[in-house]
Amino acid sequence: MNSVLLIGRLTANPELRFLPGNGIAVTRFSLAVDKDLSKEKKAEAERLGKPTADFPKIVVWDRQAENCANYLAKGRLVAIQGRIQTGSYKTIEGYKRYTTEVVAERVKFLDYGNRQQNNYDATGGFQPVDDEDIPF
C-alpha cells in the first residue's frame, strides 16, 4: 500500500504551471514537517546543527493545483494525503538523477494565514470575549 499523510508548513509559495498541449494545471511546493522529537532531543539536534524537520516535495494536479496556488502561501499549515512517486532523469551532462515526491490526492488547508476568522487572531491564539459578546 502506497499511502502518505503529512502535516506541515509550506517552505515557499506554490509554483503553478500548465502542461503544454493539454493545459492541465500542476502545482509544486515543499513542506516543513517536524520530526517527532522530544524537547530534549530537539534541543540537542538544534545545538548540533542537525535538522529537526523533513522537507518533502509535493505535487498537486488539476483544479486542486489551482486552488493551492491561489490560496496557499509560504508558512501556511496544510495536511496532505497522497502517495509517494519516484522517478529519474538524465542531466545535460549525462548524469542520472533520482526524484522522490508526494503526489497529493487531497489537500486540507489548516489555517487562515493572516486573515482573521471569528475570534481567531493571526498570531495563532483566540482573542478573549466578554459575556456581552456571546449571543446566547
Uncertain regions spanning at least 5 consecutive residues: 115-125
CATH architectural arrangement: Beta Barrel
Number of domains: 1
CATH superfamily: Nucleic acid-binding proteins
User: What value does the average pLDDT take?
Assistant: 86
Tally of individual helices: 2
At the first level of CATH, the class is: Mainly Beta
Q: How many angstroms separate the termini? A: 49 Å
Q: The CATH topology is what?
A: OB fold (Dihydrolipoamide Acetyltransferase, E2P)
Helix content: 10-25%
The description of the largest β-sheet is: 5 strands, mixed, barrel
User: In one word, what is the shape?
Assistant: globular
Report the order of strands and helices: EEEHEEHEE
Structural class: mainly beta
Q: How much strand? A: 35-45%
- Our Rg estimate from Cα atoms comes to 19 Å
Identify the strand order in the major beta sheet.
Answer: 1-3-5-7-6
